[in-house]
Amino acid sequence: HPPPLRCRRSAVSGTIVTKALLAVNVAVFFAQTLSQGALTLAGAMVSSDIAAGQYYRLFTPMFLHGSFNHLLVNCFSLNAVGPQVEALYGLDRMSVVYLASGVAGNVLSCMMSSHMSVGASGAIFGLVGALGVFLARHQEMLGGGSKVALSSIGQTIFLNMALGLRPGSNIDNWGHLGGLVGGVV
Questions:
Q1: Which residue has the higher pLDDT, 120 or 153?
Q2: Does the structure show a pLDDT above 50 at 12?
Q3: Would you list the domain boundaries of the chain?
Q4: pTM for this prediction
Q5: Are residues 179 and 123 in contact, defined by beta-carbon separation less than 8 angstroms?
Q6: CATH code that applies to domain 16-184
Q7: Residue 2 pLDDT more than 70?
Q8: Catalytic machinery residues
Q9: Residue among 15, 1, 7, 24 nearest 88 (CA)
Q10: Picking from 55-64, 82-91, 125-134, 157-166, which range would have the lowest pLDDT averaged per residue?
């Protein structure tokens, strides 16, 4: 028999990474607001600026948001999936997945789009990808619930990508896809 699954969350850690990321996103948004958009312009994913050597723009956009509603949706999504990933993978691995997925999303977006992009959703899609991998790898231990959860994850990904295909949408599907792949890897 395989060993039982154990969460990596300790009594000390709880959801510290999720809470810290939420706090950073909110704090940066208020700094963006106070800077009247200057911070957004200084840190957004802009392909031409990255090509000119401003590589920090592969990292900074995951903490910037285009509007209060954008921030709200991303914080809600992070709060929904973050604690699960943090419990399963632990503080360090969740941090790495989040940051690496955010960068991966910005790299793919930079390669495939010339539009400016900001937001945490690539990193959050990475968390969803990591959660999906965990569920797929442990189906036999988790029973039928993992198939239902995997189906829900698939539907959520499909819906988000479909919303990004609407005319006039400002959703960065390349960033989402890159983040998802980053989380799966």
A1: 120
A2: no
A3: 16-184
A4: 0.86
A5: yes
A6: 1.20.1540.10
A7: no
A8: 121, 176
A9: 7
A10: 157-166
